[in-house]
Fold this protein.
Amino acid sequence: MHRDQLPSPPAADAVWGRHFSADLERTVRAEIADAERPDQPVRRMLRRARAWVSRYPRLEQAYRTAVAIVGGLLTAGGVLLIPLPGPGWLVVFLGLAVLGTEFRWAGRLAGWLKRRLDQFWTWWKARRARRAAQQTMA
């Protein structure tokens, strides 16, 4: 769902309740899109650092190994945290983002997982809205 397609605030209240603001979701989605732009200064700095590492084969192998270990641990830890209250999905996506810096499959998996999670939340919000509408009619 594109950020311009989000429901208006009154409709959002019906879907998410008053505790969640549609404006907050719009803001978060806009900030994520802005942060993913390749021309960000941090991204440019990281590309330069990675280019430097790639000049030294042993350092590059150690770097890739470290990325695999850190990203794998973050992803596994996030999966363990999903059923608990807290930032389980955030940690999973952070781990996949770390892995995605070196491994294409992790970047593709993260994109696929984001789409599936977005579809789930869209379904869940619609389900809540239907239930709220049924309760007001009854």
User: Anything to note?
Assistant: The CA atoms of residues 12 and 21 lie 7 Å apart. The longest helix spans residues 104-137. The chain has a mean pLDDT of 81.
